[in-house]
Amino acid sequence: MRYIGSKKLLLGEIERVIDENIESAESFCDIFSGTASVANYFKSRFRILSNDLMYFSFCIQKGVIENNIRPNFNKLGFDPVEYFNNLKENEIESLPNKKRFCLNNYSPAGGRMYLSGENALKIDFIRTKINDWLKKEKINESEFYYLIAVLIEAIPFVSNISGTYGAYNKFWDKRALKDLTLKEIEILDNKKNNTAFNTDANTLIKNIEGDILYIDPPYNKRQYSSNYHLLETVAKYDFPILKGVTGIRENEIKSDYCKKKVVLNAFEDLVKNAKFKHIIVSYSTEGLMGINEIENVLCKYGTNYKMYEIDYRRFKSRGKCRGKCNCEGNLKELIFYARKEV
Ligand SMILES: C[S@@+](CC[C@H](N)C(=O)[O-])C[C@H]1O[C@@H](n2cnc3c(N)ncnc32)[C@H](O)[C@@H]1O
After folding, report:
1. CB within 8 Å of 4: residues ≥ 6 apart
2. What is the pTM of this model?
3. Residue 223 Cβ < 6 Å to ligand 1
4. Of 53, 198, 219, which is best to mutate to test ligand 1, by the most ligand atoms within 8 angstroms of its C-beta?
5. Are residues 240 and 121 located together in one domain of the fold?
């Protein structure tokens, strides 16, 4: 999935930092996990702890990181992904109006253009079925999260947006007019007891310990809760009150890492309380915290401090920028390393 701050293209660089600085480690904690791409990449090497404030991210983590096999849906007696991909129109149409949250809020029927009416209703149908199956104990928790993860991963491919759910396009992108199709997610078996969390990183840090702590907080003021509200609502399916033209959720938790005044305190608190031997931080030269501020915190609580710079244009060369942006080579992705006595 396209995600602000995704480290999908930086995995090799993070691995290089690990290989250069860490001789042996058993566990890896991805405490700002987002799409879980980093946690998933390192799952083959370490026992994984992962976490994010967003519930939709937690569902992906539960589905892909905690699970070590693709659930078999024995009790259900058929393959749900295949079933959802072959739904008959009259079956979907049988969904009562009070269960049509996405149709009535994110499609033209609700005055917004995030999703076509057909796809919005299909999402409502799928989401309602998954809840029913769980309630009737036809699927277990692992199966539930796997299906939510599969659904969440499929939605961006048919969303009428340019990047995030901060706004929808005024005209239909042809992608959004395609039929929603669910795809299986590959699950790696690392034969370890991996754990996913859905809480504030600063609270969680007081209750966990391990070898490597990977810190990839938001860089700027863009709150993930506003930019991915639709995925959050599909994951929670809690029929929230929506606000304004964009339809963001009311009363969402705001991250301190997106607030200039408090971000440094939050970061220092996190590093101070970390009971991990190695700390790796991803950040950007465009971020709310300055390089010196990050360095000061890591040197105050750790040793063996190092900073690696990756040219943004190189990092994005397979992605969006392709040398066309105005960063003139000044914009850099940063990876920091420090060792901590615990
Ligand atoms: C830069 S993104 C992480 C991207 C991720 N590494 C990836 O490759 O997809 C930052 C993430 O931090 C999460 N976040 C923000 N504040 C948080 C907090 N206080 N505790 C936990 N997660 C938080 C956001 O929801 C977002 O998913």
Report:
1. 163, 164, 218, 222, 224, 227
2. 0.95
3. no
4. 53
5. yes
